[in-house]
Design brief:
The protein is of the alpha/beta class. The protein contains 6 helices and 7 strands, in the order H-H-E-E-E-H-E-H-E-H-E-E-H.
Length: 232
């Protein structure tokens, strides 16, 4: 049986090859995971209009300081508390526009925001803001019931109502949330969008994301982490 050592030797190299391939596969997975969690850029761009053309500014530069910012506002949340830009001082926040009687995309939007709330529940630097686009229907008590049903954490995630003109002006002319280029609209046109906006501590728009798209939501989380590094 002189051939037995040869078989053993072949078997040894076969096992070695399998182990090598397995090791390579594991290494690829690690690289892919690392790439997925890292940002594509060192600093996020700034946005100033509905075209969402990226402006690559240096954070805290004079140019950035004078760039488009979300102006102050005065609205009321689900607890009946007055909410202004002061509520978000030294905070990064994610914002959207919804209404409680929406049977279509709003429940899915709320699910996406709830995932973000859970991820950043212990992070005081991150907050969330959802504006009602039917403020005549969405009273404080209606928002409170809606928030309770969906696990909204008070003072972490604000659901706000208030003056319709102010909310619609914020949505269309400040956040540019609808992103409908060349389509003129006024207060009689219903405001509705599945987009989330990422706002930095200086009230600049730093990203727009489709809340119904899983890849877009993953990118939002990556971008939040990138934005946080600007303040280290």
């Amino acid at each position: 049986m002189k051939w037995l050592p040869e078989i053993k030797l072949q078997y040894y190299f076969l096992c070695l090859g399998i182990a090598f391939i397995s090791s390579c596969k594991n290494e690829v997975k690690k690289v892919e995971l690392k790439t997925e969690e890292s940002s594509r850029v060192v600093n996020l761009p700034f946005y100033s209009d509905e075209s969402f053309t990226p402006n690559w500014l240096t954070p805290n530069s004079e140019e950035a300081k004078s760039f488009h910012k979300i102006p102050n506002f005065k609205l009321v949340n689900q607890l009946g508390d007055t909410i202004t830009q002061n509520t978000f001082n030294d905070k990064i926040y994610v914002t959207d526009f919804f209404f409680t009687t929406c049977p279509g995309i709003c429940p899915k939007m709320m699910e996406s925001m709830a995932v973000l709330q859970e991820k950043y529940i212990a992070d005081d630097e991150i907050m969330f803001l959802s504006h009602s686009v039917t403020p005549s229907i969405d009273s404080v008590s209606v928002l409170k019931d809606y928030a309770d049903d969906r696990g909204v954490v008070a003072n972490k995630w604000h659901l706000v109502t208030g003056d319709k003109n102010e909310i619609y002006d914020l949505g269309r002319n400040q956040y540019f949330v609808e992103n409908d280029l060349g389509v003129p609209k006024d207060q009689n046109d219903f405001l509705h969008s599945e987009n989330f906006l990422l706002i930095d501590k200086e009230k600049h728009i730093r990203g727009i994301y489709n809340s119904l798209n899983r890849a877009s939501m993953k990118q939002l989380i990556v971008d939040i982490e990138t934005l946080k590094k600007e303040y280290l």
